[in-house]
Structure formats: C-alpha cells, structure tokens
Amino acid sequence: MSSSSTAVGEMKFGDHLCLPYDNDAERYAVLLAYIRDGLRSQHKIVYLAGERRPDETLARLVRATSDPDQAAVLTGAAETGQLAIRPVVEATGRFDPGESPALLGMEIERALAQGYAGARITGETSFTLRGRFDEFEDRCQVTFGAPGVRAMAVCQYDRRWFDDAQLRRLEERHDGRVGVNAVYADDVLTITPLYTPPGLRLAGAIDESTLSAVQRALREVGGRGSHLCLDLSALEFCDMEGLRVLTRASQSGTGIDRQVVLRGVPGYLGLMMRIYGWEGMPGVFVEEAVR
Amino acid sequence: MNGLQGYTPGTETKGERGILLHRALMYGSEHDFADVAVPYLREGVKAGDAVVVITSGARTALLRERLGAEPAARIEFIGQSDWFKGPMQALADYYDRTHRDWWPRGRLRLLTEPVWTGRTPLEVQEWKRHEAILNVAFAGTPSTFVCAYDTSALDPHIIVDAAHTHPELVDIEGVRVSEHFVDPAEFYAGCNAPPLIPPPAGAARRAFASGELPGLRAFLSTESMRHGLPEGRVLPFVLAVNEVATNIIRRGGGTGAVWLWTEGDELICDVADPGRPMEDHFLGYLRPRPHQPGSAAMWAVRLLCHIVEIRSGDNGVLVRMHLKLPRPPRTPDHRP
After folding, report:
1. Do B243 and A276 touch (CB under 8 A)?
2. Could B217 and A244 be called an inter-chain contact, meaning their C-beta atoms sit closer than 8 Å?
3. What is the model's pTM?
4. Distance, CA of B249 to chain centre
5. What is the pLDDT of residue A160?
6. Contact predicate A166/A158, CB 8 Å
7. What is the reported pLDDT for B80?
8. Integer angstrom CA distances of residue B1 from B5, B26, B169, B233, B259
9. pLDDT-derived band of residue B291, with 50, 70 and 90 as boundaries?
10. Do the domain assignments include residue A1?
11. Is residue B17 predicted with pLDDT exceeding 80?
12. Which structural domains are found in chain B, ordered by start?
C-alpha cells in the first residue's frame, strides 16, 4: 500500500480523485471533510448515492459524524439543496458511461447557475459497478480536467469489490487517491490517522519542537480500541524523548493498556532501542523495516 | 608454587557474591604474569565461576599452555583488540555480557589486559577514567576484575594511575590494598580538570534555539559528510548532537552553538551552552534502567561517539564529541 495520496483538505477545482476504502471509518473521515469544506466554501455538493431514497443516504452521513453540530449542518444543507443527494438510478435512469459524464457536466453548470462558487461531486461504487467504469472514468477525467472547471470529484470504491488489477486501472483513470487529513502537519512532522489497523502514521522528524504534537495525537487516538499501530516507516528522525513516548504508547491516557505495534521501524531506531535497553517493553511489538 | 600470600581465592566466592573486587595485576615478566593469573583462573574454574580472559593472542596461548586443556576449555577467551575498541563500548559490553551471560552462571572472574600502546593521549586518559568508573558501575555485583599491567613495558604514569583506580593490587607477592587508591568521583573530576583547547578559527559554527533543531541537523549532516564521515554514520552522529542540543534547550540555558572540525583522523564537534552549568556525576557512564531515565540521553551520546568530553562550570557547559574518521579527511585541517 503506497502512501501517496492527496489530503482531502488540500483538494482544489479540477481534481478527480478516487477513494478506495475498506472500512467506513476511513471512508467517512474523508467524505465528511470533503462535504464540510465544500459547504464552508459555498460549493454545491452533489452526492450520487447507491440507495434509492436520499433520506437514507443523509441518515447514513449523519450517523457517521460524531459531531452534533456537523450533523445539523448536513441536515440543513440537504434541506436547502446545497447538499444534493441523487440516487444514481434516478440521476441517470440507467448507467451509461457515455451519457453519465454529460449529466455530471449539467450538474456543475446548474450549481454555478444557482450561484454556488463551485461544485463538489462524489459518487458511490455501486453505480460504477453497473457499467464499464473504465470508460466512464476516462470521460470524467476529460470533464474535470477542462481548463477553468469549477468542480472536483471524489469517486468512492469499496476495495472489497475490486481485485488489485482493477483497482490499479481505476486509479490510473484519476489524478490519484484522496486520503484523510493529517491530524498534525508542519514542516517537520506529519501525523495521519490509520484505520486498518487503527493507529497513526508518523512522517518526518520527532524532536523537541514536535514532541507535544505526538503526545496529543497519541492521547486522542486513545479511545479507538485495544490495539494501536504506529507506522514509523517514514520517520526520518526521532530523538530519545520521542522514542520514549512511542515505546510507552501502550499506556494510554485512560489508564487502559493497549497493545502497540511499531511498524516499519527504521534501523536507527532499532539501534537506539537497543542502546536504551527499551527492547521488549511490555505491550509493544516491534516490526523492523524491510530493507 | 602460587606465591599468593594473603590471597585466598577460595574464600571470595563464599558469602561475597555481591562484592566487587577490582585489582591491578602488576607484573614485570611473562613468567610473573602466568604465576599470578593461572592459579586465579584455576580457582575460578574449580569454584564454578564464569571465568573470562580478555588479553592478547600471545598471552592467551601462554595461559592455555599453563592451564592445561581441560580448565582452559571452561574459560571464555576474548581477543584484546575485539574488546577494547573504545572505553565506552567496552563498558557497555561489560554491562551486556555480565547480565546476559556471566552472572547467570555465578560469580564473574575476569582477567583483562587493557591496551595502552597506539593510543592517543586523550584515549589513554579515557581508558584510565574507564578503570575508575568500573568501581562505580559494578559496585555491589558478584564480580572480580583483575587488570594486568606490564610494569616493564608501560609508561610509568599508567602504572601510577592503575594504583589510583584499583582498590587492590596483586602480584606474585600477593594481594594488598592500594594505598594510593583515589575515590572514583575524585579521579573522574581530575580527568575533567584540564581545560579544552578552543575550536580552531575555521571551524564550522551554527547557533541553535528551540524550534531550530531541524536546521541544525541539516547543517550537521552536510558538514560531517563534507569532513569525510561515511554516510552510514551520519545519522548516529546527528542523533548524538541533537540529544545534547535538546538537553540545552529543555534543561540548560535554552540556546547554544555547535562547532565542527577535523583534527588528524578525528571529526570533532563541540556543543556549548553558555547559560548554565550541568551536574556531571559520571554523566552518561551508568547504564540507564528502563524505568529510571536519568542520564539516558548522555549514555546514548557517549555510545554513539568514540569519546565524549564534558566541561561544566561558571561559563556554562561544553560537550566535545570525538568521532573516528575512516581515512585522512579530504578537506584540509583548518587549525592554523
């Protein structure tokens, strides 16, 4: 699994990204951020849903957010039409890879005519399953790649429905993948959530300037379960305090001990753990990086 | 004959399991060496101790011959040059092997012959300090360290300091208390007494404060490679300097500076904290325990470097790290 993806918060007009997901936590973390950013920017959200009844789709989105304020915002936007949920079958009548992108073009035009600053499209796997999605996505690339287009799209793909070769072909028909927003990012360190297994990916450097961000992120993932995976494969530097915090992440703030897996531990960190005698910390399993 | 009046090796293993014995074996000839060493080792084998010999190939051959095959087979012989690479590495290796291999078998009975020839004056100084630290690092452990000194070959100051750093002396006359033994903390302080010569005018310099360590690390990487440090050793070096700098930011004066230069076959890096002195009580020499962080950072710094010197006083702290370069540096020495 490669890590190169565009954070949903970084998306801009013209982007046509795919969201291959294998769990709903990751999927909705991206989608809810995508919709929230759109609503704030006065974009119209066009959601092509698998269900026939839009209220079911809305209920699903509302359930996915833990934030009551955002739930209210979603419901309100659905009422005003800023969040337009279109059952795929109703939107297109049938799935025609030649015709559907044209309908998307009309949706974008309509959004702009309604006075919105732009359009954010997202569609669920089910509609692409019904047809020749390769052709559909190729046409979408043309639609969203047009100069000056004031729209963007996120295509949701349930990984379980596709084999690796199909997923690769799909990804090639997009500008890339969209991923969750980092929980922390500066010039030195980026921390992004992991969902399968739950945890954090730390990329860059942990030093005196970024240690408190690491501690905060570890505290905040505390409630997410009995296992925690820390992907360190892109951690280029980590000082002693940082290593101490990582090797003690099994002791969560809530007092409930959790099993921590340190994944992709770079060679220098293995060396430092040996020097400090921090190998075999209880509750910590170390997977050294493959060289 | 064993010539060991007053030396009763059979008794030291009984009821004294937690007592460290640290003795300098003074010998003037190979014959004298063997006369003291062979009974000492034989007694250990007989008592079921973990018996370990760290000496030269020639001494090993002599001991094997004099001991006989059967006792020798129960002794672990370690090559002198394999063990005494650096004073800090040897200390860490002692910690590792005693805990992992030796003490689980019983009392450790060690015979070593440290290497003194071919050392720089600084290295000789640090190996003397190493002998003083053994008294503290292994205090209260079931260990006997007998360190052999060839009085006919070594510089007199090495023999004099052996009497300062070993609580007991042993020779063919027997064991006696070293009257010149110096409290290890005092010996340690004495090693830190001479001031360090300031960096040469051409040394690369960079100041740092909180939030500036990423830039400092980039500077250290570039400069150390430019001075000939192999790529694979750059990150350990940067880790070491970063720890010292972090300590200055967190617990010291808050800001500092580094200087980097080469001298002979060494890369030298100074880290200075003009703001605040630092307590140096065997700082970084005693192995950190998992639940007692203490001076863990400085332990790592020492292990990541060849030799680390610390000077602390009213003018703040200076930490000088020495790293061995694999070959003469490509850039000329800046020292005038």
Report:
1. no
2. no
3. 0.84
4. 28
5. 81
6. no
7. 94
8. 11, 18, 19, 52, 59
9. low
10. no
11. no
12. 9-191 (3.40.50.300), 204-324 (3.30.565.10)
